[in-house]
Design goal:
Shape: globular
Helix content: 25-40%
Number of domains: 2
Radius of gyration: 22 Å
CATH superfamily of the largest domain: Alkaline Phosphatase, subunit A
CATH topology of the largest domain: Alkaline Phosphatase, subunit A
CATH class of the largest domain: Alpha Beta
Distance between the termini: 57 Å
Order of helices and strands: EHEHHHEHEHEHHHEHEEHHEEEEH
Number of helices: 13
Length: 465
């Protein structure tokens, strides 16, 4: 329990109901953008009735990207509305946070009279149990970084006792993050419950075309893959194609696990009688590589890791449908939720709101043409060819994805996602793409200057001779 219990309804004295919308933020950990049943085909079926229900009722943003493909930096960005380089949190451990920019999203709602509660995994340097800092009056089910089965009871109880106040509640689930432990062989002691024994690899979904590493990828990625595979946390160096097929089967079962928990939470919201006036936002902190280019877990810029689910549901306001707008969840979540609640959006926030996009339908133009994602590799084994930390920046503009790294001889990659959605052909070394490459370099350099990115633009691109 946090320091503060839910306070009385501020309108109790006048008996006037507060009809501002409730907000329910549902997050998972390590769920790729396409890890939902309604986006799958018969070649890789996935049973996710709760997520499918949200998609059927809401606005589905199919090009949503995280701020950073790693847990703590991504979650801190979502909580603060700031880029990772602004918060100072760029790695899971060892980052020095900027306390002046760690103003929590929940504080805005608490100060506006909302009842605020957080259940489940936190994983941010902001002290959750301090309501004056985190903004959450109630914080439960947070032990051991959250255990999914412990979320429902306190969350359902909170929904029943809000006392007429609008609420801002987060339910933060851990799965499908258990795939990390599963890959390490901890298959009988998974934090959120066992999954069945896998069938033979021949009965698991086949690996898609382009899953092997691109021989023209930036050379630092090749070295980092060796470094990560040499670390105990990423023991997949000897994985065969059959092993990856089983890995992907196991990952899907963990998505189904968390979907069942989400379904029970949605049932509790219905029983509370508040579903019709509740905005539900569903997303994940980042995805999982699932064997793409022989990576597991996160940190890389492949779309399987950087693209995430992003669905908004509100019966009275949001038009169901699918949007291909670019969304950067780390910076855009806060302005979107604040505008949805009719609260002021601080002018200094770098993100944009997608509330009008979700409520206005096809007539509303996209709010973004481009976005930037950051990363920092530091979990690799200490190989001689690798520095302690490798930084990266990723630009997405229209159909183009441009990535650049702080080390290496070949530091850049360029992919046309419309023609190469699997990112299996790096166009950066090819002369035919020179004009697009130069444009992406200029756009990223200008972005870095505008947002005072501490990694100087000169550190990227071709290394000095």
């Amino acid at each position: 329990m946090g320091k503060h219990a839910v306070s009385p309804d501020r309108n109790a004295a006048t008996c006037m109901p507060d009809r501002r919308p409730n907000l329910l933020l549902i997050t998972t950990d390590q769920q790729s953008h396409d890890a939902m049943g309604f986006l799958r085909g018969p070649e890789r079926p996935l049973h996710t009735p709760a997520m499918d229900q949200l998609a059927a009722k809401g606005c589905v943003f199919t090009r949503a990207y995280c701020a950073h493909p790693l847990c703590v930096p991504s979650r801190t960005a979502m909580v603060t509305g700031r880029y990772p380089h602004e918060t100072g949190v760029v790695m899971n451990k060892g980052s020095e946070a900027n306390p002046h920019l760690l103003r929590s999203l929940a504080l805005h709602f608490r100060e506006a009279g909302y009842a605020t509660a957080y259940f489940g995994k936190w994983h941010s340097p902001i002290p959750l149990q301090d309501a004056e800092t985190s903004g959450f009056e109630v914080a439960e089910a947070n032990a051991h970084n959250g255990v999914d089965r412990t979320i429902l009871a306190p969350a359902a109880a909170f929904l029943e006792r809000t006392g007429g106040r609008p609420f801002f509640m987060t339910a933060s689930y851990n799965n499908p993050h258990n795939i990390c432990e599963w890959a390490r062989g901890e298959r009988r002691a998974l934090p959120d419950g066992e999954i069945p024994d896998p069938p033979p690899a021949s009965e698991c979904p086949p690996m898609p075309s382009g899953w092997e590493p691109d021989p023209t990828e930036p050379d630092i990625l090749t070295a980092l893959r060796r470094g990560y595979h040499a670390a105990k946390a990423f023991p997949v160096h000897a994985y065969t194609e059959a092993d990856w097929r089983i890995y992907r089967w196991a990952y899907d079962r963990m998505v189904e696990h968390v979907d069942a928990h989400i379904g029970r939470l949605l049932d509790a919201l219905e029983r509370s009688g508040q579903a019709d006036n509740t905005l539900i936002v569903f997303l994940s902190d980042h995805g999982d590589a699932q064997g793409w280019h022989r990576w597991n877990q996160k940190t890389i810029f492949h779309d399987s890791v950087t693209r995430v689910p992003f669905i908004m549901v509100h019966p009275a306001s949001i038009r169901p449908g699918v949007r291909g707008d670019l969304v950067q969840t780390g910076t855009d979540l806060m302005p979107t939720l604040l505008e949805a609640a009719g609260l002021a959006v601080p002018a200094e926030l770098p993100g944009v709101s997608h509330w009008r996009t979700a409520t206005g339908g096809e007539s509303v133009p996209p709010r973004r043409r481009r976005l930037v994602v950051e990363t920092a590799f530091n979990q690799h084994a200490p190989l001689p060819e690798l520095p302690p930390v490798v930084h990266g920046r990723m630009l997405v503009e229209d159909q183009w994805k441009f990535c650049v790294y702080s080390h290496g001889e070949r530091r850049e990659s360029l992919h046309n996602l419309a023609d190469d959605p699997h990112e299996s052909r790096n166009l950066a070394p090819e002369g035919a793409s020179r004009q697009t490459l130069e444009h992406c370099r200029d756009v990223l350099r200008n972005w870095m200057r505008k947002h005072e990115d501490p990694i100087p633009p000169a550190a990227f691109g071709s290394p000095p001779r």
